[in-house]
Amino acid sequence: MSDPVLATHGLMKSFGALVATDDVSIDLRPGEIHAIIGPNGAGKSTLISQISGGLASDAGRVEIMGQDVTALSTAARARAGLGRTFQISALAMEDTVFENVLLGVIGATAGAWAMFSPVARNRALAERAMAALDQVGLANAKDTRCADLSHGQRRQVEVAVALTLAPKAFVMDEPMAGLGAEGSKALTGFLDGLRSEAPILLVEHDMDAVFALADRISVLVNGQVIVTGTVAEIRSSDAVREAYLGAAP
Amino acid sequence: MKNTILASAAAALLAAPALAEVKVGMITTLSGGGAGLGIDVRDGFMLAIQQSGRDDIEVVIEDDQRKPDIAVQLADKMVQAEKVDVLTGIIWSNLAMAVVPSVTAQGKFYLSPNAGPSPLAGQGCHPNYFNVAWQNDNLHEAAGAYANTASYGNSFILAPNYPAGTDALTGYKRTFEGGIASEVYTQLGQTDYAAEIAQIRASDADSVYFFLPGGMGISFLKQYADSGVDLPIVGPAFSFDQGILQAVGDAALGVVNTSQWNKDIDNPTNAAFVESFQEAYGRLPSLYASQGFDTANLLISAIEAADVTDADAFRDALRAANFDSTRGDFAFGPNHHPVQTIYAREVIKEGDVFTNKIIGTALENHSDAYAADCKM
Amino acid sequence: MIPERAINAAVICGLLAVPIWAVMADEIFTITLTTRAVILALAAVGLNIALGIGGLVSFGHAVFFGLGGYAMGILAFHAQTFTPLDLGLVSVNGTKSMPVIWVVATAVSALAAWVIGLLSLRTTGVYFIMITLAFGQMFFYFTISWSAYGGEDGMSIYVRNGFPGLNTLVPIQFFGLCFAALCLALLLQWRLRGSAFGLALNAARQTPERVETVGLNPMRLKLLAFVISGAITGLAGALFADLNRFVSPTMFSWQLSGELIILIIIGGVGRLMGPVIGAAIFVALEHWLGGLTDFWHVWLGAILLLIVLFGRGGVIGLLTGKAGPHV
Amino acid sequence: MSTVLIIEQVLNGLQFGVMLFLMAAGLTLIFGVMGLINLAHGSLYMVGAFAAAWVAGATGSFLLALAAALAAAAAAGALIEVLVIRRLYKAAHLDQVLATFALILIFSEGTRYVFGSFPLFLDIPAYLSGPVTLPGGIQYPFYRLVLIGVGCVVALGLWWLTARTRVGIQIRAGENDREMIAALGVDISKLYTLVFAIGAALAGLAGALVGAIQSVQVGMGEPVLILAFVVIVIGGIGSIRGAFIGALLVGLTDTLGGIFLPELFKLFMESGAATQTGSALAAMAAYILMGIVLIWRPTGLFGARS
Q1: A201 shares a domain with A243
Q2: Which of C147, C250, C297 has its CB closest to that of B163?
Q3: pTM of the prediction?
Q4: Which of A86, A94, A97, A98 to mutate to test the interface with C (most CBs of C within 10 A)?
Q5: DSSP D157-198
Q6: Tens digit of pLDDT for each residue in C22-46?
Q7: Is the minimum CB–CB distance between A120 and chain C shorter than 8 Å?
Q8: For chain A: N or C, fewer Cβ within 10 A?
Q9: What is the ipTM of this complex?
Q10: Domains in chain B, ordered, with CATH?
């Protein structure tokens, strides 16, 4: 077993009396897709925010490639190798697809302080952006404004932006949300191939996608990981059944 | 606002060989909060022009909105586009400071119908600048002198925290021989004076001197009257003017204030002015109207004596001040500011209308404290 | 619909043509008026970088305008009175040289923008609008009671400051200087908008989370934009002071901050030429409406209302048929 | 400085704060429910004062004048809501700022057109004028005590309105979720007009009450408007409770700052300079307070955490 790319150790977060995440320790190994599932309100979104740096944890640690990033900002964690996509698309809607992906390249090359040279004409940067767009199959739509894209296409742009960062690990928050059956299927195929780039921590409601993609699954209930295992183990777990369907009579 | 008024156009048909036409630029406040003062100056000025029946004076009037940068821009326009010979009209000291040095430096004449900031009376004086109203300190000095004759021994004095405010308190202290119980600076534009009135109540003063022009004075007087504090108040005419007295109401009754003009000054020019102003505009003239009227008459007297293109002769004609002032005697001191008598007046009610009545003389033939600094 | 480039070219040509015509026709005041529009446009170009690209609705940009003005006023005051300016540790002489004044004005404004930005950027939305307004009011009240430099009366500088090789007292030459400054600022804004920084800043306005997840710090982007913005507006303040040969606390007033925002909205938020068109229209309205009636503010208000209600995207939005960025 | 004076100054601060609250309550209500920045709120204050002065002049009755102020400001508020504001709810903050700024211009110059350029007369009625003696021998103007009372009654009334009535429930629902109240079958545009009119009426009431001890003139609304914004930002935009606390804080800071800062500076400065420096700082005090609060809590004391 190789060292994990991304790991959490005993993450805690509570909002007043509500405990959102409680002692969550999970890891993400090279080449795998690790899915996090759980009922609504289980603390999945909180966990994602804690990992990506949007929320400060009450206790616990986050490590990327063995480096403790708990005290780092979102931006610093991104530079450390965390590529994140959002549940509700966080794209610059007024800008074109190309410009959004270019933003990722700028972030990856830390070149946002160049203030006078036209960035769109920088061939090296443009090529990296186009490569990412090619990879997600959106090269044709590069001059479309994001506001005019379909849901599925926006997901693809999200992934393309994350790709430009050449991340050590992807963290994806419900990428299938809002996609039709066709869209989910296409994206599932794409993510399947993506694991060779970097492992994916996948929070997802779409069980077909999860069961098709995941190497391992962790089930989060009331802020706690009640079980982690392979697809088969999860399918047969009584604890999971209980959490989703209520205790057996 | 632009009004090009050719006084008495019909007279132009008569073939009287007039001197060169004189163009006057009036920059004054005609919109916004302080518009009342500018309107009075304009109306007084235009009344005198009309009464003169002259067809050779053209007056261009513009509204400065009480903004210094607009005033400067208008002054540029008057000089560059309208090519006026004489400027006048500015109400506020800060606007005057912005405009006067620059236009006099460009060789134009400026006749001030209201503002008289101290720098322009002292080191910054200029041969082409004539103040027809007063140096800013004058009415305050007169108030100090009145306080002496009323044998006040200890005054509580207050003014807004801006240059004219500090000048006011300095002016009062210059002539007042009693002690100062406390000296308070309020915020410019402040509308609530409860805190200051409480300080007055707690002090051991036997009199109150305040300089709060415009709406500030209205607020102070109303609140003071309601507070139950009954120390006598003295102020300059600015808070007791015809335009705002009606808004103060009973609260102002009996208060003594100092002014170089009042509608009951007994001379034929003044009587005619008060009557014709009321006839023309349907209201009693104010201090500002009288200053506008005097400014126009000074100008006319100079035009009659000299050609405006001959700057030296025209300046001498202005300096002679050979006109009938509504104030009676009028003369310029060496720094082109008035040497004049300043009266103490009391607020009274005539029928339904609040107005002032002269009760005595505060300072006789008074000049100003800065004339010695003026080298011209 | 007209392409934006054609509009931009027409605006620049118009701005040049008017004063040239004025020189031929000996209408000197028209040059002064155009210069005023150019300087206000410069101030608004500064604000537009923070507001239009970065989405920072600053209701306190008069601070920088005023600081630029006072930098000019104080330096020239000490030069014309031959008194040294005491800065505590060192004392320096005043100056009547425009280039020196401009450097000081931009530097002081940039420094102030850095401090104000650092504190204000902790807040967003309406809170940001209000905290910048609060800083404006602080400076306003401070200068009103700062008697050393004239307090509310302000300061008159009797002769316009000099620029090597030019006679700035000639209106058309001073106009040329201001026009050159505006062109430089426009060039800067244009290059900025197309640069990596501009792209990141524009994204930070729309979606700060995204900018963070690609490893950039949106706060620093916005802060830098605010500093550049303040510096340009500060330069405009110094030029404005020289146009009027006068500075006063009204340069710090909240009405002025509001006017700068209005100029941008009239022309088109975030558009390169938005502030220029806005300033030209505003100065023209002020001048012509003021000549028509005593109560011209009513008509100005009505026109502004019509622009908001029916002209989304300002004049440029109207002409190009494209909505501008959403702030 | 005697205790009596300090108590009197605290009362003054409270009275100022309570009047600010009348302005701020309407602003914060309108922002909370409709998300609108209304710069023209100061104009509604002015409308109230002018209506009161006009009716008081015509009838001599202060109560009728107050009623007129409420009615005129509410009517003006409803009118601009229907004609202008309604089109701006979905617009960017910038558009709202510009449109309501335009309304200020129209109201101010329109009022000057109708009533002329000189201040109007409005006075305290005889039965409310003069000082009363409070326990401890403090002489205090009766009218100002009445103002404090009226302000507190309005604050209680607003609390009752939002917490206990059907309209209040709708208003609170509207703050949280517009679709929700539409789903409840509430006519949202009527609700908005109502809230706007209530806010306007409060501003008008403040204008009339304050106009009686100040100067009723064009432009009287703007200084109060800016301070009212300071109040709601300190309190947290949308929170009535925040507006009340914020108003009292600003009222007390402004009043007590004006008194104590010059005294403080006199301890180590020459008297004249101390008074000037102290006054200058006092003028900035409310804004400094707001800056500190926002740096400490970026959404105000009672604002929703984002």
Answers
A1: yes
A2: C147
A3: 0.87
A4: A94
A5: HHHHHHHHSHHHHHHHHHHH-HHHHHHTT--HHHHHHHHHHH
A6: 988 888 888 999 999 999 999 999 9
A7: yes
A8: C
A9: 0.83
A10: 3-134+264-332 (3.40.50.2300), 138-259+342-373 (3.40.50.2300)
